[in-house]
Each structure stands twice: as structure tokens, then as C-alpha cells.
Amino acid sequence: MANNMNNFKNFIISDVCSQFSAGMLLAAMNWHAIQSYGSNGLIARLTNINLFSGFLVTLCMVKLVSKYSAKTVIISSHLIRIFFVALSLLIYCSFGKTYSSFYFLALSNGLAWNIYFPASKNLISLLSRNLDTVYTNGIAELSMQVGLFSAGLVSGILYKYIGFSMILLIGIILFVISLLSILKINILREDIVEEKVEDKKNLSYSWSLFLIGIVLYLPFVGSNLLNTILPGYVLENLGGSSVSYGVIDMFYGIGALIAGYTIIKLSKYLKFNLLIIVLFFSSSLLTYLLIFNNSILNSCLIVLFLGFAGPSIRTLIYSEVMKKLSSYYLGELMFIWNIFNLALQILSTYLLGNIINRSGANIGFSIYGLILLFGGFIYLTIMSKFEKD
């Protein structure tokens, strides 16, 4: 128990540094792209590089994840991050503003994130044995958002005062710190050879768990679309700057921070099915309100709730899944879910980039709202089966 607690603390430190760096680089990349080239199409292209590279690496990892420990997989993701961000920095310092520096940053996020995130959930499952899974997932979500919530604002300020290249350098340093913290995790052999659920029981869960995984990842699809929509929306609809973009982006993280703490409390008093349905439909409604909005303050408040809803849905579903499956099975299942998540993101982002360029950011929010509405209806149809299992 003590060993797992120390390991969990090291994981939290690593996750905060990693997520802060990733969020800071993503916000800086998107703003630098829109400011330098004035093209929503470029941002959509960068997002597609992110998604396609993630899709390909996820296909490979489905078979490899059972052969390597979650710790080893996470270490490899950090090494990929450091390499590609350093390469982007080298190109930027040598040749100035080029498309390739953007492309390597997008590739870094696409490869590393889609290796890291499923493996991190596998590691959390292993480290949180004999603990309340809502609590451990809530704390893990909280730690991730501590890094992400301030990254947008900090990135906007740093971009204005020290420039894009220094942001890349800071990002590399933070990824190195994250890597060192992961290396401190010491998982005993007896923790790895844990008690497994009977094969037949796992097979009985397979269909409902598969569908739950699709619902689980729809908020990811939505947040990814928000990253594509937001720079052009702030610049064109709100007339904002890099700082106002960073502030609005930060409010998504603040909402997720609030979710990491409050969802632990709410789950003790309300049914998780009710919470998930309410979060899906209310966030869909608020997304449509952004279409008629021209206030930065209102944008911050709506994005705050969207940031609260997505992580809350994830925390609740992850917790239920971890009750039904051992970490041995969870790792591979996470990568399978991620394949379908990325396929949906690739399709939606490709269509969205072209549509936004022709029709503006408001149509993007319409699509975002439809995706959340779709998630709510799917969950309504399968929640009784999932709860029964």
C-alpha cells in the first residue's frame, strides 16, 4: 500500500509536468499558426497530422501493450515528445517560421499522447488497487488538469513576451522533469501479477464495455474540435488577442479542475447514470449558445462548464470500467477504444476545417453540440445494460 502511494505521488508529479507542457505547446502552436498564416485550414491540417499519427501508433500499440509494462510505454512516450519538440525548435531557430516546425510539433503530440494516455490509465489501475476508483480517477483527472488549466494562459503570456522558441525550450525541460518522475516509480513483481477476472466474465462485459468506450471518448472528440474552432472564433468573432485566447482556453482547464474534486463528492449522492446524462445534454445546449455570443466573459463561463462536463464523464465511466476489469485487460481495451476515437476525430476534424473556412467558427460549434447530443442519446440506450453487467 505504501509503495503504491509513493508511486502514485510520483505519477501525479510527472502527469502535472507533462500535461502542462503539452497544453502550453498546443496553445502556442495554434496561436502562432493562426497569427502567422491566418488560416483555420492550417490548424485543421495540424490537427489531422496529430490524429493520423495517433491513429497509426495506436494500431501498433494494441498488440505491443500486453508485452511491455505501462511504465515502459509511458517512458517511450516522453522520449518521443522530447525528440520531436527539440527537432521543431532546431528547425525554427535555424530557418525561422516554416510549416515543418508546426508539423513536427503536431506529430509529437499525436504520437506521444496516444501512447501515453491509455498506458497512464493502465498504470493508474495498477497503482490504485484496493482503493475507491472514483477517488483515484478523480485525483488523476485533477492532477492532469492542474497542468492543463494554466497552460493556455501561461502560453499566451509567454508568447507575447518571450516568443515561440522559448516556449518550445520550456516545454522540453518540463518533459524531462516528467520523465525523471516516472523513472522513480518502482512496481513490484507481485503488483503486476495481479488477480485476473475470469475470462468468461470479461467476455460477457465486452460488448457493453466497447460501447461505453465509444461514449467515453466523445468528450475527447469535442474538446479536440474546440481546439480547432477556438483560435479563429476568438480572433474573428470576439476580436480577441493571444492573451484573451489563452484566458478562454484556461477556463476549460479550470472547469476540469473543479470536476476532479467535485465529482468525487457528487458520486456519493447521485447516481452516475443520472450525472452522465445531465452533463451530456446540458453541455450540448451551452455549446449552441456560443453561436450567438460575442462576449469574452460569456465565452469563459460556457467553456468553464464544458471543461467541467468532459472530465466528469470520463472519471465516472473510467471508475465503473476499473471495477469490472483488471489492469491486465484494461490497457489493451483502452487502445482499442482509442482507435475508434481517433477515426471519429479524423473524420470530424477534416470536415470541420473545410466547413469553418467557408462558413466561419459558428458552424463548428453546431457540430460540436451535435456530437455531445449524440453521446447523450447513445448512453441512454446502453446504460441499463452496462449497469446490469
Q: How would you characterize the overall build of this protein?
A:
This protein has 389 residues and is an all-alpha fold. The protein folds into two domains: 184 residues, Growth Hormone, Chain: A, CATH 1.20.1250; 181 residues, MFS general substrate transporter like domains (Growth Hormone, Chain: A). 87% of the residues lie in helices and 0% in strands. Helix 1 packs across helix 6 and helix 9 packs antiparallel against helix 14. The two termini are 29 Å apart. About 3% of the residues have low confidence.
Please write out the topology:
Elements: H1 2-37, H2 40-64, H3 70-95, H4 99-127, H5 133-149, H6 151-161, H7 164-183, H8 189-192, H9 199-237, H10 242-266, H11 272-289, H12 296-324, H13 327-359, H14 361-388
Features:
mainly alpha, Growth Hormone, Chain: A, 2 domains, 0% strand, MFS transporter, MFS_trans_sf, transmembrane helix
- Would you give the CATH topology of the largest domain? Growth Hormone, Chain: A
Principal-axes shape call: globular
Radius of gyration, Cα only, in angstroms? 20 Å
Structurally, how many domains make up the residues? Answer: 2
Distance between the termini: 29 Å
> SSE order in H/E notation?
HHHHHHHHHHHHHH
Low-confidence stretches: 195-205
CATH architectural arrangement of the largest domain = Up-down Bundle
Strand element count:
0
- Give the rounded overall mean pLDDT: 79
Approximately how much beta-strand content do the residues carry? Answer: under 5%
Question: Which homologous superfamily in CATH is the superfamily of the largest domain?
Answer: MFS general substrate transporter like domains
| Portion of residues within helices | over 70%
> Helices and strands: which structural class?
mainly alpha
The number of helical runs is 14
Mind telling me the CATH class of the largest domain? Mainly Alpha
Major β-sheet profile: none
